Amino acid sequence: MFVKGQRVVCVDDKFHASIAKMFAQLPIKDRVYTVRDVYLGQEAPGSDGATCGILLMELLNPVDKRKRELGFNSERFAPLDNANEEEEETTEEVEVGDLVEV
Question: Which has the closest alpha carbon to 12: 77, 89, 74?
Answer without folding.
Answer: 77
